């Protein structure tokens, strides 16, 4: 029996969680613009999911939020004075930029990095490349802090390699694990890494979406594969269907999800879908696995229903009996055809035989479901032992973090509240305490002054 596991590291929602509608191409994000948010409830909903999966026996960790508003970025854009004066001037002269600098979007840690387990890499280490998230300003400022946090969590350089992000330029637009899935027979064995891109920057033969941006490039995928030392026999590249991107599928994890040897996907996920599935089947077989594709027909669930419900922005988790749980948001139960499909699939005798529903409305209203909230890292038992133990979920940590949220988070945040300089003070106070709880050291700019 394999002594390796897939660990989910969920993003802890930050104190400035708000609905500014910043993510063009993400229908839920733009559709809820200017609504009041509840940061305290958002953080507690995320923690409840982490704890529930921990209680079911799955290995679960926590990724810390970032300092917001990002005053350093505002200073780079010409807003001067004290921190309070910078915020006041940005609020008066460029409220949209202030909203971007205050976003809590790092909570969606599927975009934090791309991860290659040690079974796939040339040097036998687990490799992380933080995503540059170059397509959106509010996300492009995340990767330096993300890298410091990952280095504090995975500090043993004999087992882990945390690379810098790719060049922050459109040709190498990288959105992290939201466009990356790994298939394998056992988590610590050789696998097949599946990179999905929206467009090619240097090759005009590839089509592009017409309405919404293609955030991930083929060139970024290829660069990450090189950095991680992946073999050609263990890599598959696929292009998203451009029409599906234009329907609101801004990342691959909105239209497909994989785990171990199973790909759960929509009929309209990829260009040349039959060829993509055949290549995955062939390469996984060579690695000792048996590839299973579960394709949801367009006739049963439309792309629009998939986007609205976030059916595919779900988590697939392997149980000890070899079957899988699918973790979905409450919205799936509220859309009749989606719920009907899930009930049929889970009772059909296939690999996915259990559905777990979670209320993640605060995240969902900003366009992030269960899969967005977690970064998957396949680790051997020895590698897990080398991870910073303070970031691993436990009964004690769950209680500590809930109490921390109660002390520091507001239960209502409106667009006008972003101009309040006290919000920065509250965020820094909370994060200073959190970095001690999680034993991260000085990872935030305000701690390094």
From TrEMBL:
Function: Catalyzes the hydrolysis of N(2)-succinylarginine into N(2)-succinylornithine, ammonia and CO(2).
GO MF annotations, alphabetized: N-succinylarginine dihydrolase activity
EC number: 3.5.3.23
Catalysis performed (reactions): N(2)-succinyl-L-arginine + 2 H2O + 2 H(+) = N(2)-succinyl-L-ornithine + 2 NH4(+) + CO2
Organism of origin: Vogesella indigofera (Pseudomonas indigofera)
Alphabetical list of NCBIfam families matching this protein: arg_catab_astB (TIGR03241), PRK13281.1 (NF009789)
Assembly and oligomerization: Homodimer.
InterPro entries: AstB_sf, SuccinylArg_d-Hdrlase_AstB
Residues that, per the record, bind substrate: 20-29, 111, 138-139, 215, 253, 366
GO biological process: L-arginine catabolic process to L-glutamate; L-arginine catabolic process to succinate
Pathways per UniProt: Amino-acid degradation; L-arginine degradation via AST pathway; L-glutamate and succinate from L-arginine: step 2/5
Active site: 175, 251, 372
Protein name (Swiss-Prot/TrEMBL): N-succinylarginine dihydrolase
Keywords: Arginine metabolism, Hydrolase
Gene name tied to this protein: astB
Family: Belongs to the succinylarginine dihydrolase family.
Pfam families for the chain: AstB (PF04996)
Main enzyme class: hydrolase
Keyword Hydrolase: yes
Source domain of life: Bacteria
């Amino acid at each position: 029996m394999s002594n390796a596991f897939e660990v989910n590291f969920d993003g802890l929602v930050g104190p400035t969680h708000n609905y500014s509608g910043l993510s063009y191409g993400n229908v839920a994000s733009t559709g809820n613009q200017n609504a009041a948010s509840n940061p305290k409830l958002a953080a507690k909903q995320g923690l409840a999911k982490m704890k529930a999966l921990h209680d079911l026996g799955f290995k679960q960790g926590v990724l810390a939020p970032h300092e917001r508003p990002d005053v350093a970025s505002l200073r780079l854009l010409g807003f001067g004075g004290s921190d309070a004066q910078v915020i006041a001037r940005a609020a008066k002269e460029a409220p949209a930029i202030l909203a971007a600098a205050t976003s809590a979007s790092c909570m969606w840690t599927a975009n934090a990095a791309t991860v290659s387990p040690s079974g796939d890499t040339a040097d036998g280490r687990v490799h992380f490349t933080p995503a540059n998230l170059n397509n959106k300003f509010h996300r492009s400022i995340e990767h330096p802090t993300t890298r410091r946090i990952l280095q504090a969590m995975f500090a043993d350089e004999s087992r882990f390699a945390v690379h810098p992000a790719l060049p922050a330029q459109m040709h190498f637009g990288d959105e992290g694990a939201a466009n990356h899935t790994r298939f394998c027979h056992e988590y610590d064995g050789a696998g097949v890494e599946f990179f999905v891109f929206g467009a090619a920057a240097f090759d005009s033969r590839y089509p592009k979406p017409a309405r919404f941006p293609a955030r991930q490039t083929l060139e970024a995928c290829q660069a990450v594969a090189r950095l991680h030392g992946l073999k050609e026999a263990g890599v598959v590249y696929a292009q998203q269907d451009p029409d599906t991107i234009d329907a609101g599928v801004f990342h691959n994890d909105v239209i497909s999800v994989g785990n171990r040897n199973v790909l759960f996907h929509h009929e309209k996920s990829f260009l040349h879908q039959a060829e993509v599935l055949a290549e995955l089947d062939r390469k996984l077989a060579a690695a000792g696995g048996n590839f299973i594709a579960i394709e949801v027909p367009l006739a049963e669930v439309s792309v629009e229903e998939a986007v609205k419900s976030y059916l595919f922005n779900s988590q697939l988790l392997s149980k000890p009996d070899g079957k899988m749980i699918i973790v979905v948001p409450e919205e799936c139960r509220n859309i009749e055809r989606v719920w009907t499909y899930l009930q049929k699939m889970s009772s059909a005798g296939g690999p996915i035989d259990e559905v777990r529903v979670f209320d993640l409305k605060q995240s969902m209203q900003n366009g992030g479901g269960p899969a967005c909230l977690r970064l998957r890292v396949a680790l051997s038992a020895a590698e897990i032992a080398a991870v910073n133990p303070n970031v691993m979920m436990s009964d004690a940590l769950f209680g500590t973090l809930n109490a921390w949220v109660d002390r520091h988070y507001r239960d209502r945040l409106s667009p006008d509240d972003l101009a309040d300089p006290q919000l920065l003070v509250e965020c820094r106070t909370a994060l200073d305490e959190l970095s001690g709880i999680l034993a991260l050291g000085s990872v935030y700019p305000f701690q390094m002054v």
